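Hi team, as promised in this morning's meeting, here are the two structures we talked about. I've kept the exact order from the run log so nobody has to guess. The first one is mostly here for context; it's the second one we should focus on when we meet again. Sequence first, then the predicted structure tokens.
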Amino acid sequence: MSRFPARQSSANQNAARLRDNQRRHRARVKAHTAELEAQLAETKARLDAALDEIAHLTSEVESLSRGLVTERNVPRALPTVRASSPAAAAHLPSVFGPPIRDESPRPHCSGNCNQDQTHVDGEAHATQPDILVVMMSGRDCKDLPAPQSGESTAPCIDAYKVIEQQNFSGLDVVEITRWLKPGFRKAAEKGGGCRVDTQLLFALLDHISSTDGL
């Protein structure tokens, strides 16, 4: 009997096994590729979400550094930030602008006092304005130093709003003055209102939050 049919059958079986192996290999490669594509899509979605969050946080940081406040309403007088006593109010720095005269009644002048003496007495009773009045006034404070090169400043009125929102500990005006006085700057442009160094403003806000509830 000839052996050729047996050899042909064996060759056919080998070819069939080879095709099966190739099919299984292609199936494994296809499944692995699909898995990698799914992981890639998931990773890309997480990356896009992270980039959106970074962009949002960056925008918030930039807005805060420029002293921008989203609340547009004119702020109320701050009840918790005030001079603790008339004596404390008298120590407010003169850098905040011209004094506000005391309009309380004066003793009646006798015949031997002149108008000059009355004027001097009026000046003696002058009091410095509340820091928050100055911050809200929008005056350009021409006597203040100009912002330094590269210095980040915020409008005083925006600084007031931030302090109003954060001053839960009731920090008084003398303490606020101590923090902000070195950072007051004249207006960046005519009629723009005074400005304050944001580094000092952030330090003050950090101090307020650290003393809140003590």
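And here is the second protein, the one for discussion:
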Amino acid sequence: MKKKFFFHFNKKKLKKTSFLVKKIFIFISIKKMAFFEKIFFHFNKKLKKMAFLVKKFFFHFNKKN
């Protein structure tokens, strides 16, 4: 009884489910991209700060010599 029900249920829901799963995966991948972009942006900001500090340091160092 349960198996028959599940088979019937699955046949009807399979198309809807696959559609939803695709939608969810697309949503997740978009979210992931946003997440990675955020990390990259944060990292980029840090890199810029570091580059600035390094430049400052070298400028200071060159002034001394």
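Starting points for discussion:
Residues 2-64 form the longest helix (63 residues).
The radius of gyration is 27 Å.
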